[in-house]
Amino acid sequence: MTINEKSILRAQIIKWITRVFLILVAIVMMFPLVWNIYSSFKTNTEFLTNAFALPSGLEWDNYVRAIAKSELGANIFNSLFVVLETLCILMLCAIPCSYCLVRYKFFGVKVITTVYMAAIFIQATYIMIPLFLQMNTLGMLNNRVAIGLLYAAMQFPFAIFLMTGFMRSIPRDYEEAAMIDGCGPAGILRRVIIPMAKPGIVTVGMISAMSAWNEYPVALVMLTDSAKQTLPIGIANLYEIQKYATDWGALFAALVLALIPTVILFIIGQKQLLQGMNVGGLKG
Amino acid sequence: MSEKSKRPAKKKGGLHRLPVGFICVCVLPTLLLTITFTIIPTVRALWMSLWDSTALSLNPSFVGLDNYIYMFRDEYFLQALANTGKLLLVVPIITILFALILAFILSQTKLRERGLYRTIFYFPNIISMTVVGIIWSFVFHPTMGIVNTFLQFVGLGDLARPWVGDSATALWCIAITLIWQATGYYMVMHMASMDGISNEIYEAATIDGASSFRKFISITIPLMRDIIGITFVLAMSGTMNLSFVLSRVMTAGGPNGASTVLLQYMYQQGFVNGNFGYAMAITVFSLTISVILSLISRCLSSRGEEKR
Description:
Chain B: This is Sugar ABC transporter permease. Chain B: One of its GO terms (biological process) is transmembrane transport. Chain B: It is a multi-pass membrane protein. The complex is a heterodimer. By secondary structure, chain A is mainly alpha-helical. Chain A is 77% helix and 0% strand. Chain A is built from 13 helices and no strands. Chain A has helices at residues 2-39, 44-48, 61-68, 72-103, 109-119, 128-137, 144-168, 173-180, 185-196, 198-214, 217-222, 231-245, 248-279. In chain B, helix 9 runs antiparallel to helix 12. The radius of gyration of chain B is 25 Å and the shape is globular. The two termini of chain B are 19 Å apart. The interface between A and B is large, with 90 and 92 residues.
């Protein structure tokens, strides 16, 4: 009896030690963000006093200034536009392409698949200079539509890698049945493959949306017109300006505004995102 | 295999004729975009790295490998390379170690809120690197930063310094930020493969009186060797890629190039100095490193799959 009690006590102690340790790690992970959020409600004089101190009131004016005195509104709109465009192009192109690569044995299918697998390694940050020259030749600099196209193209290899994996695991019998019912290839794709590969498609969508929303190096090079820049560039510019203007309240408010959409998307799609990582295990 | 043996006759039959038009419509746009935005720029980088073209020169001349030879005599390039090397030596090891420990604790513990911890630890990874860089440059801010305020609070005010403005610490500020944002990501990857380890092994070890630390060293790590290899290489390539954004946002490569990384030097040569030919040589060099890292990870992962 006493031995049993002892071991229960021991287990309880270990449980609490682990819990305290994990809570400490959680604080390290979250504190910079929490600090950012509550500091965004401080007045600029409060910034100069204790860094940890909570704000005395809610200084919503920071948010007003963040939007009014910068291009942030336009930046957010541009980012939303680019993300939606990226998703549309990506889905429209990559889903049918993956399907064909998986199911049909046409001339060059092996070569094309190999090209995509190799292209996963070529990340846009590395080739930003030749990419810039290429966009310049095509007359696509400072063009939001072109950036969406470019982001979609950058996601193709990874998206195709993930989706072909998903589609390969779908049993052929469903397609055979649909074919006997008189369904053409496009019909099979729309009515059989897309519904069945939905988890994979959603995962690809989540990962691509987040990386397009957060992308910095390529947008930095391609978009120089401040009215056309996406949010990460706008925020970085704002930071450069506020280093001298020292309107920290507005800067922190802008950071929070940039965080909100990613947080919402993460809360909605957490499951798919984490699942996709187990399947794909690659980050762009 | 079974597909082939089951229906060899049907394949050649009329029902299974290749829908050529459908395939073209599906495959060609994607292929065309990939060629335009990935293949051609890469080939162009290789080609242009052999020329001395600049943003201004109208007739660049062919210089062969001169750009590559010059690279290793350029002290700023070597500094950037050394900085990247330092990050690659330190960041992946610490990141993967933390990720492994946290993954082990979370997968072994029976705490009710473990899902919550997983979400919280993963969270920094979804934030834009620009935002991460700015937040952390405030964490290290000389007067209103968390670090210095904390040091003063616990009475170690003497240690306070302008972390990102000091050439001795600037690079390590970037390293800490990289570790902070990547740990949760690799933790989730490790957890996924730790779930694959049978519980019986751990139970047997418990009966034999093994401590948690012992289980971690003698069971978890050996069984996950291949996965650790993959995540390690991924962390290296992530470090190379993401250090550019952080270095640009947090320190602008300074002070005096003390925190410039490879990709940032490439950007600077290309877009600030306009030395396209030389920048292309750096592009090819960095790309080669990245491809080698990816190939290693690919080999490791296919080896891991064969074993299973």
